[in-house]
Fold:
Amino acid sequence: MIAVSTTWFVARMGSEQVPSPPNAEATTSVPSPDEEDFVPLAGQAMAHDRFPVNFPHSPEGASSMVIVYLQALSTNDVETLSLAFDAYSDTEDPDARVRELLFPARVHDIEAYLPPGGTFDPETFPSSSSYYYIAPLGVTWDEVDSDTVDVWVLANEEVSDGGSATFTRSYIHGMRLEWDPWVRSGDWVITDIEDPSRSMAFDLGEEYYSLDHELWTPIFFPEGDGGR
Structure:
């Protein structure tokens, strides 16, 4: 893993011949990760019967939690988002966080990316036809100490209000995780969010938004699904 600063980030037929049957081995083969890929670790339990939790007490475990957390946020359903916040983050009122912080931030992004001629009514967001997909691509982390890890994830995102306001983008998510021995008998908890893509404090060039940048370790999903 490439080292980064301990601060948040100092530093997008023509033949009539009958074809042979497909090769059974080829159709059932499972892709394998490259040596440089990061394969997310599995959680050892489930929260709310849907979210993997209890990740290993290691930077790899913390990074794996961030990846599944972002996948959990790949929705505009209030209940699902609230349960995800409750499962992974340090917040007393998950529902309020969704309605008062997350949705306003998504409204701001839609307005900022509104295509020419597009219209958007913030009062109707999120509509039942709106969607928000997050597909994690690459990861890097900094182990501040044995119980604190800063994790950054490069993701592709597809956003729509359900109407004409639809866009795709590359985005960098950043967050701090701390190990809490009292949560689920020991697990990582997201205690701070600092998205470099959203903050003026991080002067990141366009090259950082590509998986080709040396900062990122590609994420390998054995199931072939990166975010939906």
In short: Strands lie at 45-47, 51-53, 131-145, 148-160, 166-180, 187-193, 217-218. The radius of gyration is 20 Å. Residues 2-22 have pLDDT under 50 and may be disordered.
